[in-house]
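Dear support,

I submitted the protein below through the web form. The confirmation email said the job was done, but the results page showed an empty box. After a refresh the structure appeared. I'm attaching both so you can tell me whether what I see now is the final result or a partial one.
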Amino acid sequence: MLFGDDYVRFNKYLQKGLIVMIEGVFELKRFSKDVYEFKLIRIQLLSDAMATLPKQINLFVHPSDVSEDFISFLTQNVQKFNGNTKLSIELNDQLLQCRAKLETQHSQHFTMNEELAQYLQNNPKIQVMVDLN
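What the results page shows now:
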């Protein structure tokens, strides 16, 4: 339950059907030495969090899985969703023991978006790691 200032700050997120991300900490309850409570720090829409939290998206793919569709999609997506998130693509062939890493330049950073999330979800051969720091 939310009371006082917390209710005033966060009540707009208390609507049925909203998908939110909640951040908080467990701390000792006021006037207690052994009872903890969850202290809410921030609530934001998950779609907003997806766009603002990732600092870098790392994609790991075997060179044989790089297709024209893959290159075309990433090129168009980065251009369409300009932002502050870096994109790194690592090509790794363990059999040949070769690895190459490609990274976007500052002018090519983008914003994580639903189109990219869907594309990656539909292409399980592409491994994904998201850096939040």
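Response: this is the final, complete result; the empty box was a page-load delay. The helical segments are 4-10, 46-52, 68-80, 114-121.
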